[in-house]
Amino acid sequence: MIALYFLVATSTEEADLRAMWSVMAIVLMILLFYGIRLLELVYAYFCKKPFYVHLYLFPKRLTNEQLFVLQTQFPFYQKLTPRYQAYFEHRVRRFILKYRFIGQQGQPITDEVKVLIAATSVMLTFGMRNYLYTVFTKIVVFPSKYYSAATQAYHIGEFNPALKTIAFSWEDFVAGYQDAHDNRNLGLHEFSHALHFQCAKSHHVSAILFEKMFVKILQELKNPEYSEQLRESGYFRAYAFENRYEFLAVLLEHFFETPETFRNHFLVLYDHIQKMINFRDR
Ligand SMILES: [Zn+2]
User: Which of 45, 87, 187, 245 has a Cα-to-Cα distance from 64 of 20 to 30 A?
Assistant: First the structure.
């Protein structure tokens, strides 16, 4: 009887001990997770970049047809080293799989349409760890400019968070790449609006950096002399000064299309954008 009691008591103690270790392991894991996150935020504060950007356990591949589009029509991809090209392909594939592409008014959704749209977004966010959006779920493509019943006006592109939609006129999207240095790129422009909205709602390290640098850009604009200098230069089109959102979208178009001129004339702003999206030459 005593032996039986001893056995029962021992197994109960062992079960308690196991439960205690399990709880401690979970608490330690949570502490570790938040500890690393906190460390990364401190690191990002000083170094203006996350601990890491690209880490894919199961990298995805594009189909040969999709890859051909990147190889022949997307200079940003062509200039990457093979390692970064693989990362770029993975992101383009994930992007294509995540969003619903809808062709309107007879616009076909081909591999070219999907890849060039996805690649534009991936180019913009290539230095950021998080590159997929939750602020839209549909990508609507029209053959050319389209009439919007909501605004009662013609558009060539728009980001509509209420409808969780981003829309493009394909004719104008393609025109954005025909002259690579005219500082007009519809795809970059609309994705900049979506990214801005996304980062304002997110708490990951890349979004925090994006927001922090945006505040710095706005602080620069508060200087009347600097603001006047920006307008007077004629480098940024008048539309940039409509509001802060358009200003950022136009800045990002210039950043990708004429980086040398941008850097030479407005180094401080250029530097803020570079840190904002953690852009590095690869
Ligand atoms: Zn805009």
Answer: 187
- Ligand 1 (ion): residues with CB under 5 Å are 246, 249
CA of 51 from ligand 1 middle (Å) equals 32
d(CA 58, CA 43): 27
Q: How would you class 25 by CB atoms within 10 Å of its CB: exposed for 0-12, middle for 13-18, buried for 19 or more?
A: exposed
What does the radius of gyration of the chain's CA atoms come to, in whole angstroms?
24
Q: What does the alpha-carbon distance between residue 237 and residue 247 come to, in Å, rounded to a whole number?
A: 9
Taking the centre of ligand 1 as the mean of its atom positions, its distance from the CA of residue 64, in whole angstroms, is 34
Distance in Å, CA 176 to ligand 1 centroid: 14
Separation of alpha carbons 133 and 153, rounded Å: 27
The rounded distance, in Å, linking the Cα atoms of 186 and 168 is 8
pLDDT digits (tens, 9 = 90+) for 103-144: 999 999 999 999 999 999 999 999 999 999 999 999 999 999
The pLDDT tens digits of the residues spanning 165-184 come to: 999 999 999 999 999 999 99
Q: What's the CA-to-centroid distance between 179 and ligand 1, angstroms?
A: 19
Q: Which residues contact 276 (CB under 8 A, 6 or more apart)?
A: 209, 210, 213, 214, 217
